[in-house]
Amino acid sequence: MTLKILPYDLTVCKVGSTASLNLADPFYFIGKTDEEISLVCPTENTPENTTEREDGWKGFRIEGVLDFSMIGVLSKISGILADCEIGIFVVSTFNTDYVLVKRENFARALTALEQNGYSLEMAK
0.70 cut: is pTM over it? Predict the structure, then answer.
């Protein structure tokens, strides 16, 4: 399985609204519930109206479209990283999953995944 490394630093934050987002930018993940609007975005594109934020994330996506019947894909990745005591933040889209790791643990995470049979490529 191939993991595509995202080429930018990421921020996880809460925002009051999504009105200021430029959805033409390359990456935004928006999660809205009755309690909050959460956003994952390249750090350089973090909106000014954040109410809380945490910088310092790097990420990768599982390459390809994951069929909903596939079992254990994310569990295996998270297990490898848990064994290395590396925390993760995960977001999922219709097609695939994105795994975020704090910058200081990212190289170690990629090494562990590569040693467990994952191929790594840079995303464009």
Answer: yes
